């Protein structure tokens, strides 16, 4: 059975599919927000459907953790956008 693991130096310690750098949150986000089927997700990552189901089962069983990861990712995206250098159009 596929395992979900956390390794401090891989994906910032977020849960991932064992032997892959595929985060549970990535799979969850594709399934929930991208309306992707488990089969399509498995194909896109070249992994088994069982691994996708293991990731989704973990995500749905740990919804608080998924919300924390989402909030952290959103904060990073906002900080990156705020620090982006915008070219000056004045010549």
Structure overview:
The protein has 91 residues and is mainly α. It has a single domain, classed as Winged helix-like DNA-binding domain superfamily/Winged helix DNA-binding domain (Arc Repressor Mutant, subunit A), CATH 1.10.10.10. Helices cover 56% and strands 4% of the residues. The chain has a two-stranded antiparallel ribbon. Helix 1 packs across helix 3 and helix 2 crosses helix 3. The radius of gyration is 16 Å and the shape is globular. The N and C termini lie far apart (61 Å). The mean pLDDT is 92.
Summarize the structure.
The protein is mainly α and 91 residues long.
Name a few traits of the molecule.
globular, mainly alpha, Arc Repressor Mutant, subunit A, 91 residues, two-stranded antiparallel sheet, 4% strand
List the SSEs and their pairings:
Blueprint: E1 4-5, E2 16-17, H1 24-32, H2 38-45, H3 49-61, H4 63-83
Antiparallel strand pairs: 1-2
Number of helices: 4
What is the N-to-C order of secondary-structure elements (H for helix, E for strand)? EEHHHH
The total domain count is 1
- The helix content is 55-70%
**In angstroms, what is the radius of gyration?**
16 Å
Q: CATH homologous superfamily - what is it?
A: Winged helix-like DNA-binding domain superfamily/Winged helix DNA-binding domain
Strands ordered across the widest β-sheet: 1-2
Beta-sheet strand percentage? under 5%
């Amino acid at each position: 059975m596929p395992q979900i693991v956390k390794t401090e130096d891989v994906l910032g310690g977020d849960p991932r599919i064992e032997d892959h750098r595929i985060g549970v949150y990535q799979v969850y986000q594709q399934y929930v927000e991208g309306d992707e089927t488990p089969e399509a997700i498995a194909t896109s990552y070249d992994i088994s459907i069982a691994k996708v189901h293991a990731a989704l089962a973990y995500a749905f069983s740990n919804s608080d953790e998924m919300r924390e990861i989402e909030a952290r990712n959103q904060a990073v995206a906002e900080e990156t956008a705020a620090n982006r250098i915008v070219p000056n159009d004045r010549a």
